[in-house]
Specification:
Number of domains: 3
Strand order of the largest sheet: 1-2-4-5-3
Radius of gyration: 30 Å
Oligomer: single chain
Order of helices and strands: HEEHHEHEEHEEHHEHEEHHHHHHHEE
Structural class: alpha+beta
Largest sheet: 5 strands, antiparallel
Number of strands: 12
Distance between the termini: 47 Å
């Protein structure tokens, strides 16, 4: 790190040495019209807006004539207040701030004879515009999605919550990347304990770089080894705004359209933003359907294997005869059939996700039809297992928020059922519920609302009550347990 001086030539020389072999850092020296003022700017090509630099910084200074013979701090103040056309101007003598600002896309202006630099907001460059969020499609609802620009994302939230109590606090995480991270919450709603805990966990992060919000999620989550999400994520501004209105904290990371929300509860795996835009009856039915899909996606292969292998007496005779005839000639046991078909389904899903959209869809369709039909015809597998795996996979797609946990639970249930039949399945279910009841998300029980059945708790869980009945915020918002009248409770 170098030491600033009032000599322009010396400052530029030290900056060039600091940014040696970095060709995107641009230096531009220029003089005023009367040659009495010598200046230089330093900026990052590709991150700074050249139009702002040329029209609002260089041109006004080049045309400036120092009639009053201003010097030193007076000259710097006059240029800052009367010459430069820029919305954000900061004067600093801190070398660390100067270098960080340059690398972030701002421009540093040095004036000969003036100690320090003027930092100008010229951040620009090519950025993705606001578009439809690809991971959370809705039939009815806003079409705006977060982008990779943290300032734009904050604006999308502030557009929806125009409240002075909405607080936005910035932090930098990453020794090398210096990634900007924003903590957002509504001061008079969010519990101070949760806000302070979030700040503490972010302060404790020590890593070279943060390239996506997933880095932060792994550092701050309560159960780092759990297959269940304890920190929510979304790329929809309306969902983030709804979380804030419920007293949650939202973390926005620069460079990614996915923002984090916390605390995050188990029931949120089955909720969608569209539930709050449609009629509450249909929304409740959809939530119940998602819960049913969770059971099908995790349990269908396990129950099938346990019934066929251990509990044939529980299967109706006609159905059992049909299954037995379809398995005639198949050389592999039912458990191996199930595992192989589930693995093939996962391979097709992964291939369809990673390949370009048009090719991915073709592979998914061709793979499912051709491989399934050929395997049954060749007597490698039986027809019922194809139906079971297809039903399992389709059910999992109905709950994308829980898809990662579903994939692990599916194989866990399957192995337990193969070893002990329905007893093994029941043992794993009991263990799963015991585990879910024991974990927390930022001090809040992960299975909140399940421990005590009441009208208040059920208003926004598996059922969605009408907006005019949802008069209370979540019960963990202790300091603001007040009636909300006919205001909507918020989105999930």
């Amino acid at each position: 790190m170098f030491n600033l001086s009032s000599q322009l030539k010396e400052n530029l020389s030290q900056l060039k040495e600091l940014f040696l072999k970095d060709d995107v850092i641009k230096f531009r020296a220029f003089n005023s019209k009367d040659s009495k003022l010598r200046c230089a700017i330093v900026f990052t090509d590709g991150l700074s807006d050249r139009r702002i630099i040329n029209e609002n910084i260089i041109k006004p200074i080049v045309n400036f004539i120092n009639d009053n013979s201003l010097q030193g701090d007076e000259l710097c103040s006059y240029i800052k207040n009367n010459i430069i056309l820029c919305d954000q101007i900061e004067e600093t003598t801190d070398v660390d701030i100067i270098t960080k600002s340059i690398m972030y896309g701002k421009t540093a202006l040095f004036i000969d004879g003036v100690f320090g630099a003027i930092i100008l907001n010229t951040k620009g460059g090519s950025e993705r515009s606001v578009s439809i969020p690809l991971s959370e499609n809705v039939v009815r609802g806003p079409r705006e999605g977060f982008t990779e620009n943290i300032i734009v994302n904050i604006g999308l939230i502030k557009k929806r919550i125009q409240d002075s109590n909405l607080k936005v606090e910035f932090k930098e995480i990453g020794r090398r990347t210096k990634t900007k991270v924003c903590i957002t919450y509504i001061q008079d709603i969010a519990p101070d304990e949760i806000v302070n805990e979030v700040k503490k966990r972010l302060e404790d992060i020590d890593i070279d770089g943060v390239l996506e919000s997933g880095y932060i999620e792994e550092f701050i989550r309560d159960e780092p080894l759990s297959i269940f999400k304890t920190v929510g994520s979304t790329e929809r501004p309306d969902v983030a705004a709804g979380k804030l209105l419920e007293g949650r904290v939202v973390i926005i990371c620069d460079g990614t359209p996915f923002v984090l929300s916390l605390p995050y509860l188990f029931i949120e795996l089955f909720q969608a933003s569209e539930d709050y835009y449609n009629n509450y009856v249909f929304s409740s039915l959809n939530r119940i359907l998602r819960l049913f899909c969770f059971i099908l996606a995790t349990s269908t292969p396990a129950v099938y294997v346990s019934l066929v292998s251990y509990h044939q007496e529980m299967i109706p005779t006609s159905l059992f005869m049909s299954i037995a005839s379809s398995r005639e000639g198949v050389p592999f046991p039912t458990i191996l059939e199930a595992i192989v078909m589930l693995m093939i389904f996962e391979i097709l899903r992964e291939a369809g996700t990673r390949l370009p959209k048009q090719i991915g869809q073709a592979i998914s369709i061709v793979g499912a039809l051709v491989l399934g039909e050929a395997a049954v015809s060749a007597k490698f597998i039986s027809a019922p297992i194809v139906i079971i795996v297809a039903l399992t996979g389709i059910s999992g797609f109905a709950i994308p928020q829980a898809l990662e946990a579903v994939r692990v639970l599916r194989f866990t249930f399957l192995v337990a059922s193969f070893m002990l039949g329905l007893y093994g399945y029941i043992f794993v279910v009991i263990g799963l519920f015991t585990y879910l009841m024991s974990i927390k998300s930022f001090g809040i029980n992960y299975m909140e609302y399940v421990d005590m059945i009441s009208k208040e708790n059920l208003q926004d869980t598996a059922f969605r009550a009408p907006h005019w009945l949802m008069k209370y915020r979540p019960k963990y918002i202790v300091k603001n347990r007040v009636r909300m009248g006919k205001r909507r409770k918020g989105l999930h």
